[in-house]
Amino acid sequence: MMLPLVSVIIPVFNKKDFVEEAVNSVLNQTYDNLEILLIDDGSTDGSTEILKDLALRYPSKVKLIQQTNKGACHARNIGIQVSKGEYIQFLDADDILDSQKIEFQFEVLKSQPKDVLVFGRWEYFDDVIGDLDSENFSFYREHLKPFELLIELWTKQQMIASFAWLTSKLIINATGLWDENLTLNQDGDFFSRVVANSSKVVFVNDSLGYYRKPRYNNIITTKNFDSAKSLFKTFENYQNLILNFCSSPKTKKALIKNYEHFIYRMNAISPELCCRAFEKIKSLSGKKRPYVFFDSKLLFFAQFIGLEKAIYLKLKLRKAFK
Fold it and tell me: Name one Pfam family in it (predicted).
């Protein structure tokens, strides 16, 4: 019996040093019924020539789609729209899948309803797989109530790499497309909706992928107003999404952790958005002054003098003691 087709969507923008290794990790999968959709997002570094060569060498597996630079989310959306598979595997052009990643996950999925979601292990690496320590996350387990996985991730400020999932087209269609207006935390936004549209989330212990550690100028490490606006928007989306399922104190605590993270990450970039995040915290906590001194000095004093002034004083003191 023919195995269901899995569509592997790889957006590529200026990844000439890594993309062939990423594609080879898909070509080497023990699960054989795959289509590989390479979306060249206007590369200018020689990636295009590598992609064309791969498409020529593996015409039955690899399809190349070229577009002017419109961003990774647009590229992924194009991949979704042209995909023919019953399942979707996302992979960034600098990450790597273990050769049995898809096989192990499909072995679980084949006995499950189509609205069940699976994810596997993932490890950071720098230059060579295994050069960084792996971590055994507490969320590596089955989640009968999918929204509880989101609450745990937000409370502990952890993430799941986008390639760790294998998602049915049924769930993708219910989820909708990637938000092309976002420049930061796009995968968190998309996969929170994917999780919310699943009936159960199953962890596959033997499934593995490798996440290349971001460099200094990577979009993940970038701090500017656009990235601040994007991150804040995703945290608002989380709040709107999860409160449809559960409004327990545990849920609100998880949402507060997101807004606290935003304030500490972006206070030097956008004090105005941080003030909005602080108001969200107070609203979720149900308290005008939710912090004691040892919780957070910045947020404790912000309760009395305002967050914008507290941020200003913090930055001034940091500069004085440099």
Answer: Glycos_transf_2
Kindly report, residue by residue over 269-303, the tens digit of the pLDDT.
999 999 999 999 999 999 989 999 888 999 999 99
Question: How far does Cα 310 stand from its chain's mean position?
Answer: 31
Q: Could you tell me the CA-to-CA distances from 146 to 7, 143, 203, 207 in Å, in that order?
A: 24, 6, 12, 19
Say yes or no: 236 and 211 in one domain: no
Assign 3-state DSSP to the chain and report helix, strand, coil percentages, each to 5.
Answer: 45, 15, 35
Whether residues 205 and 304 share a domain: the answer is no
- Kindly state whether residues 37 and 139 are assigned to the same domain: yes
Nearest one of 63, 43, 61, 49 to 20, comparing CA atoms: 49
The set of residues, in sequence order, having a beta carbon less than 8 Å from that of 188 and lying 6+ positions away, is 159, 234, 238
Q: What is the pTM of this model?
A: 0.94
161 and 101 share one domain: yes
SS3 of 59, please?
Answer: coil
Rounded to whole angstroms, how far apart are CA atoms 116 and 200?
Answer: 5
CA geometry: angle 45, 48, 53, nearest 5 deg? 130
The rounded distance, in Å, linking the Cα atoms of 147 and 142 is: 12
